[in-house]
Amino acid sequence: MPLLDSLTEALRVLPGVGPKSAQRMAYHLLQRDREGAARLAGTLAAALAEVRHCARCNNFTEAEVCERCLSQQRDASQLCVVEMPSDLMVMESTLAYRGLYYVLMGKLSPLDGIGPRELKFDKLVERATDGMVQEVILATNFTNEGEATAHYLGEMLRARGLRVSRIARGVPVGGELEHTDLGTVAQAFVERRGW
Amino acid sequence: MSRARVDHETAFLLHSYPWRETSLIVEMFSREHGRVPMVAKGARRPGSMLRGALMSFQPLEVTWSGKGEVKTLHSASWQGGQALLGGIGLLCGYYLNELMLRLLAREDPHPELFDAYAEALARLAGGGAHEPLLRSFELNLLREVGYAPTLDHDVESGEALREHAEYFFLTERGPVEADAKLGDLPLLPGRALLAMATGDFSSPETLSHAKGLMRRLIQYHLGGQALESRRILMELQAL
Hints:
CATH superfamily of the domain at 5-78 in chain B: Nucleic acid-binding proteins
Order of helices and strands of chain B: EEEHEEHHHEEEHHH
Shape of chain B: elongated
Radius of gyration of chain B: 20 Å
Largest interface: A-B, 28 and 35 residues
CATH class of the domain at 5-78 in chain B: Mainly Beta
Number of strands of chain B: 8
Shape of chain A: globular
Helix content of chain A: 40-55%
Number of helices of chain A: 8
Number of strands of chain A: 6
Structural class of chain A: alpha/beta
CATH architecture of the domain at 5-78 in chain B: Beta Barrel
Oligomer: heterodimer
Helix content of chain B: 25-40%
Distance between the termini of chain B: 48 Å
Strand order of the largest sheet of chain B: 1-2-3-5-4
């Protein structure tokens, strides 16, 4: 296959990139921005070689254990489980949490064949039972998949003597009932708490 | 023939796949039109109205149009009245969805199966025993798609099954009186098969025989392909 075609084909691994966009990208890199293309090639190769999963939190890092997991400033008795690195970033920007994290890199998705083996539940159990962690906070999404994930993680971790909590859901802060979607209002009602 | 536009029909989302940058392909199971695949354009955009609404196991009110195989979803709104599934109920729900995805032909209406599915979800959400519910839904589904197993008479002799006799179930045909030369098929008591025929899964004996038999029949009709949700449910229960 000519190199130009191989490049176009290779670019199609990117999400949302079809044959047309891939061709456009290939022309752009070769014609208009050869320097950028070299940088992209170099960085991609380096990232592939260097970036791996943190031995403790499973997030991406270049070290064996990431900086956040090594930090003395964080509360090692709390472990927050999230689906994706982007969820971790959201939790961090709230400034509401000072504990540590575990990133699953996915969620249970039975119809897509993603189960406990694919998500390496055993690695999380090993992390959570290090003797330091006392509370595991399940912050998976409030989708069916996220709920299924939280349910089974909860059962597994509780069985190992850990305190397990789940982030709350309901009407958004500053939200008005009138403008909140019905599903959320219904669930907020079901999960109402003593006041 | 499919009409160009269908307004406000009750449907459940069976599964969805990411499509292009911001869209989803959704497999809907609608009451009057059966299983219909649709494109939910822009459904993965942060502000999409569809984003929160496209949730499995919840009755939705759906409007779509299109003449091709894959329709265009215009709106989906949450109908309410169905509690969210949790725990093992969710996994059972996924199993029901996978069965329907594999066994239902596209745009083949099954209103009675739709009602049975809605009831099964309501019972799963209510924390009812899930085994009888799964067996009865499996049997319902096989009947709806034209694979109804014979459960009340011996397919060799044509005689009605006897409660106290034991039978082999030939996968492609049905029950025959147990006979040594048929080899090592599992023995099924007549009373268990007769109970299944009437949809009565209340006895533990019926339930345990029904489980093996339904698994065998479903596997046969799926051409031996394994069900992902079943594998994952078993892995989760082994944790």
